[in-house]
Write a structure and sequence with these properties.
Length: 147
Amino acid sequence: MASSQSARDQRQMVYTVEYTSSPDRKQISYVSAVFLIFNAWTSTFIWVAGMLIAFAGMLTYIEFGTGMPRNGGEKNYLEYVYGKPRFLITAMYAAYVVLLGWAESNSVVFVEYILTTANVEVGRWNQRGVGLACTTSAFLIHGLALK
């Protein structure tokens, strides 16, 4: 009986916590608090704007995909919409792909993995050189192996 009474007393114990503030504690001003609140609203607005832009892009691709007689990617859709002058979109899209270097960054990472797997020291220039060779060979194979 005594043990059950002491267990009940332990469960009914109330803990009090005393909060104290130190003089070294950092305080924020009203201006900082306002900017913190506006920061949250601004970032939310940016995410919502990005969602709306992505949704508009999705609707564009749905419209192109269901309304065009040719299936394919951006190049085919743009060629269908802007037919004249001939090969303008093809040349612009090729310049976009080759000159902006999206394939080069991927090839540099790919070469880093390959060189690490082959136990070759990954240097700045051997990584870039092999990456350029990989990208050039991929472009040549794609350009020359047409039907």
